[in-house]
Amino acid sequence: MSKEYALTAPYYVYRIAFRSLDIPKLRASHWIPSFPHNAREIWVKQRQIRDLLLAIEPGAQWEKHEARMCPQCHRWVVGIQAQMMREREQRARLKGEASSPCSDYCEARSGLTLKNLRRLLAPKAPES
To answer: How far apart are CA 105 and CA 124, in angstroms?
Structure first.
């Protein structure tokens, strides 16, 4: 099978809930910032980090969820929504089309930064 038509593999994230200890501080690259987390619950992207946290507290509860990030708006979806998004991406890839938006409210990131916003809102100099 050529790389051009390779199907997209499922991507998994892990929810870990400690029972007796607080979760040690992790680098921001290990946990998913847009997911809820507190002193005893965290969502991580990597299986190795999950294993490390389970070594710290072997009795911790953990769950594996399929997850997907929308390529247009970068919003995460989990569970059945992630599975449906993966299937849409596979169909689009096989047809050679662009992926469809994740929802009706999906807006591609415009690249609007604080610097660009200030430039847009700055008073205009009068033309002579």
So the answer is: 33
Residue 82 has pLDDT above 80, yes or no: yes
The pLDDT confidence band at residue 20, using thresholds 50, 70 and 90, is confident
One DSSP character per residue, 72-128 reads: TT--EEETHHHHHHHHHHHHHHHHT-PPPPSSTT--------HHHHHHHHSPPPPP-
Count Cα atoms within 13 angstroms, Cβ side, for 111: 0
**Coil, helix or strand for 50?**
helix
Contact 43, 76 (CB under 8 A): no
Burial of 45 per CB tally in 10 Å (0-12, 13-18, 19+): middle
Buried-state track 46-81, b at ≥16 Cβ within 10 A, e below 16: eeebbeebbeebeebeeeeebbbbbeeeeebbbeee
